[in-house]
Amino acid sequence: MKLRSEKKTMEELYVLYLHTSPAHGKTGGIHSNFRSPAHKFIQFLKARDITKAAKITRKTIKDFQLWLYTERGLTYRSVAAYMRAIRLFFAYLERIGQMKSGLIMPLSTVSPPAAPVKQQKAHYYTFAEVETRYLRH
After folding, report:
1. How many whole angstroms from its chain centre is CA 8?
2. How many whole angstroms separate alpha carbon 11 and alpha carbon 38?
3. Cα(94)–Cα(3) distance, rounded to whole angstroms?
4. pLDDT (tens digit, 9 = 90+) per residue, 37-57?
5. Fewer CB atoms near the end CB (10 Å): N or C, the chain?
């Protein structure tokens, strides 16, 4: 099923997805599980002035994953769950011709960013500490 050449916003496409998914054999439970990841992804896109599905790139998807790690504090498993849910939505967008195919499937979940290494403060001994520590007889 291809939509006419009209390009819809991500919110309009998501609403359309919610209405048409049960017709494709998806259970109603998938919507409640899917709603939060898709909503957060659409809000992430909106904050970056991306309103059309055709403007989404692999870099955008990686940035979203890093945002989930850093801003939302999610674990690798949680980010992977978000990506599984978003893949369903992307598959729908590909099927209706709103997104080029193969954008998300070869993309794996990004590893969490490394925690910054805390550098220990250097301790400088005073003359009195040196005398008591090293010059004792």
Report:
1. 22
2. 10
3. 11
4. 888 888 899 999 988 888 888
5. C
